[in-house]
Design a protein that fits this description.
Blueprint (H helix, E strand, L loop, with lengths): L1 H11 L4 H19 L3 H35 L9 H16 L2 H7 L5 H53 L7 H16 L7 H22 L4 H12 L3
Helix pairs in contact: 1-4, 1-6, 2-3, 3-4, 3-7, 3-8, 4-6, 5-6, 7-8
């Protein structure tokens, strides 16, 4: 069970790769803007990074989830139990990405001590939910425990930033992202039985057409549109 959970866990955490890259860029900017008390710029970064991370994370999570059955079929049969572990871990990480900059805002402000308190709460949530769910639900209980812990941990920090700084990362664009994600899943569910390579290629094409292309067409992310424009023009 531990081996199955570990493999599924690492697959589920792949969606957080863009978050780590973005945080390396935004954290110094947030620290500088807070030092100079430019709160409008902090809020702008908060919202933009949240939206960008959710777009990237949703695309990767959808791509992994719809191909997870084929992927796990490459391993011994027992690993098929890890499919929903991938989903639960991925959803937890996706919410973490949606609220990711709140940690940078807290730790670089005069409320930095709250970061310690929130991390202690994360430990409490993680231990208690695992003790509660693993005996009854095994690896799925462990995955749900991690998802719930990440959700509660980030929800507390989200509410704190909203209360202390009067800013939150969500906007109407998130509604469009949810709709596009559901449409993409609906279209992919119509695919006939395919081998792993054809299925991966088909789902990549569908997600690009039903998720990424509408995101660009609707102009949901100014940063993404600028990146596409640079790529199309051949500029780095």
């Amino acid at each position: 069970d531990t081996a199955v959970y570990a493999v599924a866990f690492y697959i589920g955490t792949v969606i957080a790769v863009p978050q780590r890259s973005i945080e390396k860029i935004t954290t110094p900017l947030i620290a500088e803007y807070i030092r100079r008390r430019k709160w409008a710029e902090v809020e702008e970064i908060y919202r933009k990074t949240s939206l960008t991370q959710v777009i990237a994370g949703t695309f990767i999570l959808l791509l992994i989830w719809v191909n997870s059955g084929h992927l796990l079929n490459l391993l011994p049969a027992v690993y098929s139990d890890g499919q929903y572990v991938i989903l639960f871990i991925g959803l937890g990480k996706l919410f973490d990405m949606a609220t990711g900059a709140n940690g940078s805002i807290i730790i670089n402000s005069r409320h930095y001590r709250f970061d310690l308190a929130s991390n202690l709460l994360l430990i409490f949530f993680t231990v208690s939910t695992n003790l509660l769910l693993i005996p009854s639900y095994g690896i799925h209980g462990a995955a749900v425990a991690t998802m719930l812990s990440l959700f509660l941990y980030n929800l507390i920090k989200l509410v704190f930033v909203w209360t202390a700084f009067s800013m939150q990362p969500f906007s109407k664009e998130f509604i469009w992202l949810i709709v596009l994600a559901l449409v993409s899943l609906g279209v992919i569910s119509l695919l006939p039985g395919l081998g792993i390579i054809p299925h991966l290629a088909a789902t990549l094409l569908i997600l690009s057409a039903t998720f990424l292309f509408p995101v660009w067409l609707l102009g949901l992310s100014a940063d993404l549109n600028r990146l596409v424009s640079r790529l199309l023009s051949g500029n780095s």
